[in-house]
Model the fold of this input.
Amino acid sequence: MTSSARLAIVIAIAASFAAGHAAAQSLDYATYKAKVEPIFLKKREGHARCVVCHANAGNAFRLQPLAPGATNWTEEESRKNFEAVSKLVFSTNLMSSPLLKHPLAGTAGGDDFHSGGRQFQSQSDPDWKAIADWARGSK
Done:
């Protein structure tokens, strides 16, 4: 491999990292905390709350566990959740974002598998829309 080819690869990797980092920085923490994070605590009929399966999960959607008796996360825990969740948003193609696609019914554009079932039957679900609006940069 030539040195110019290696340089091109390094530049491409750096650009990819920078794009992902910029996307995470463009997401608003205050909006996340007020409108998105409560969805992860919400009981949806026929489903467990997101936090039940995703607290300390061994996958990319890893939420902080709630302290015994707590009904919300601390500021530090919310910031950790924000960092983890932000990595699941792909600003260049929102519908490829695992955060939006994975819990969405296949007939509504979701992917094939979510062990927690289809949390959102359509893109019209108010909670799915709140997550999508935040992912688009709404405040």
